[in-house]
Amino acid sequence: MSTTYPLTKTSSINVKPSSASLVVTTGEPAGIGMDILLQLAMQQKLGELSYPLIVLADEAALQQRFELIYGSGVSKLSGPLWQRIESVNDLQQISGQTKGNALPQFYLLHVGCAEPVVAGQLNVNNAAMVVQQLQIAHQWAASGAASAIVTGPLQKSVLIDAGITLEDGGMFTGHTEFFMQKSGCQKVVMMLANSAMKVALVTIHMPLRQVADAITADNVRQTVRIVLNDLRQKFGLPNPKILVCGLNPHAGEDGHLGTEEMDIINPVLREFQQQGANISLAMPADTLFTTRHLQDCDAVIAMYHDQGLPVLKSHGFGDTVNLTLGLPYIRTSVDHGTALDLAGNSATSDVQPSSSSLWQALIMAEAMVHSQQK
Ligand SMILES: NC(=O)C1=CN([C@@H]2O[C@H](COP(=O)(O)OP(=O)(O)OC[C@H]3O[C@@H](n4cnc5c(N)ncnc54)[C@H](O)[C@@H]3O)[C@@H](O)[C@H]2O)C=CC1
Ligand SMILES: NCC(=O)COP(=O)(O)O
């Protein structure tokens, strides 16, 4: 039997009795972000979360994506997928209404695209809507109206092509830098985590040619400080063991293959060792990432993006979480990009929710909110 549209409902609804909520940005509208959210909703996963989900997306694009993936007649739909709200305050106002209707899987705040969305086709004219989602999410999290931000993937290149910049006028390089600048932080750390390992980065989105110059004592020191602090506070590890990659092959081979380890990285790491931190000196990255070293270590600090992340993703692409350490609020994200080749493709509709990075990012954000509320 098929169920007819609309998928939203406008009558009174219940929300879970909590003041906490997770705000989800769906990111690039032509990409896979909305698809994965809809899959989780269709598989009744989102209702398992302890906190209501407020999703930022263009409603027409969301409806259209649903039809592309599932067709226009759906037999599995036992309740509304979403309830449209106009502002985060609506969640508080509707929380008292209990008329016995089934809960929606999520609450939708419509953020309109300038032009119709075509799955898989980037449109520079819709880039402003992507950044608008980030601005709303930041405002809500910074004001405490939302408890955490969970981001879907965006296409950095289309934002750059649209002339969108970071707060300081610099190139739009990613969510991490966007939220850092919006929050007035001087430094945050990108960490990716899965069941095999956690990898944090000293430098994030920059050309390889600039990386060596960005490995300064101050940068390494701030990275280690933030990682230690957040492993203690967010992951409940009172004395985490951290291994640190060198920058150069063989960690510089005693200065014959580069001197950053001797001159910059190790002096900073010795400061932390002297303060009692369980942290290594710079190790050759190729052998650091072996089972013997990884099995009893809590986190790895890598010097640059493609030193650490390919190893991590080879152990769990699709169920890794990207999180930002050092922000004044919780922010988790998917590990994958916009996957334009998969957007709107019905073949993705049977993805296993437990192996979805968005699901992992949601449950990690939920666990962090929960531990903060204790
Ligand atoms: N969190 C974010 O906003 C991220 C955004 N990006 C951005 O995404 C854009 C595209 O980047 P790419 O390097 O092509 O990476 P990508 O992750 O979009 O795609 C790489 C390959 O992985 C596949 N793939 C991606 N997600 C998948 C999923 N959930 N399940 C199965 N297969 C999946 C794609 O089909 C493609 O073959 C870039 O603009 C990049 O900056 C990349 C990583 C994270
Ligand atoms: N490799 C992760 C990535 O590029 C995502 O970055 P961000 O948008 O979370 O800053």
Helix content estimate: 25-40%
One letter per element, helices H and strands E, the order comes to EHEHEHEHEHHEEHHEHEHHEHEEH
Separation of termini?
A: 45 Å
The secondary-structure class comes to alpha/beta
Averaged pLDDT: 89
Which sheet architecture does the biggest sheet show? Answer: 12 strands, mixed
Q: What value does the Rg take, in angstroms? A: 22 Å
Shape designation: globular
User: Low-confidence parts lasting 5 or more residues at pLDDT below 50?
Assistant: 1-15, 96-100
Q: Give the count of helical stretches.
A: 13
Bound molecules: 1,4-dihydronicotinamide adenine dinucleotide, ligand LD2JLWAY
Query: For the largest beta sheet, what order do the strands appear in spatially?
Result: 3-4-2-1-5-12-11-6-7-10-8-9
Beta content: 5-15%
Strand tally, please? 12
What does the model show?
With 374 residues, this protein is α/β, with parallel strands linked by helices. The protein is built from 13 helices and twelve strands. It has helices spanning 33-42, 59-70, 89-94, 127-143, 156-161, 175-182, 208-214, 217-233, 260-274, 285-288, 291-294, 305-314, 357-373; strands at residues 22-25, 53-57, 82-85, 106-110, 148-151, 189-193, 198-201, 241-245, 278-283, 299-302, 321-325, 330-334. It has a twelve-stranded mixed β-sheet, sandwiched between helices. The model is unreliable at 1-15 and 96-100 (pLDDT under 50). Bound molecules: 1,4-dihydronicotinamide adenine dinucleotide and ligand LD2JLWAY. Residues 174-176, 309, 322, 333 line the site of the ligand NCC(=O)COP(=O)(O)O. Keywords: Metal-binding, NAD, Oxidoreductase. InterPro entries: PdxA_fam (IPR005255). One of its GO terms (molecular function) is NAD binding.
